Amino acid sequence: MEGVDDEIIVTSSAIMNYLRHKKPYLSPGFSVHDIVTQLDIPQKTVTDCFNKVSKIPFPRMRNQLRIEYAIDLFKNDAHLKNSISGIATDAGFTNRATFYTAFKEVTKMTPFEWINENCDTPVQEDFGDESSENEVLKIKADQKQILNFKDEL
């Protein structure tokens, strides 16, 4: 690579090996500091590895690895036993909105769309919490009552 010395390439490889095998990114609080302390590498060197070698800033790389992990879970039908929000938590995300944003950035589709397009067993609707489900059920019930009322006229 032009402008990048061999030492930083070796260090970058060590960082990626650590990320792929130890999966520290599954911890919600995972940061550059964790790499610095675990691998005993100066923070500037770690940052340079992401920006100059992989050319992907650390936060984006962390999210990409988390999304790859979630996709592996989807491929193994985890969405049949766990909610998409639960899978997001398993992948290291602290909330559903951040997961959906990162998922769409990486895959160009929502988790729901990805599952329905790539898995043998699609999902219907995912609800982040029970209140959202209750709201949707109430709206559906209200629509049904309106339709029934029209039939009576």
If you had to describe this structure to a student in words, what would you say it looks like?
By secondary structure, the protein is mainly alpha-helical. It is built from eight helices and no strands. The chain has helices at 6-22, 32-39, 43-54, 58-75, 84-90, 96-107, 111-118, 130-152. Mean pLDDT is 85; it is low at 129-144 and 148-152.
In a nutshell, what does this entry contain?
The chain is mainly α and 153 residues long.
Question: Can you write the helix and strand succession as a string?
Answer: HHHHHHHH
Percent range for β-strand residues: under 5%
Main beta sheet: strand number and arrangement? Answer: none
Span between termini: 75 Å
Helix content: 55-70%
Radius of gyration: 21 Å
Structural class, judged by helices and strands?
Answer: mainly alpha
The total strand number stands at: 0
Search tags:
153 residues; 8 helices; disordered C terminus
List strands and helices in order, with pairings:
Blueprint: H1 6-22, H2 32-39, H3 43-54, H4 58-75, H5 84-90, H6 96-107, H7 111-118, H8 130-152
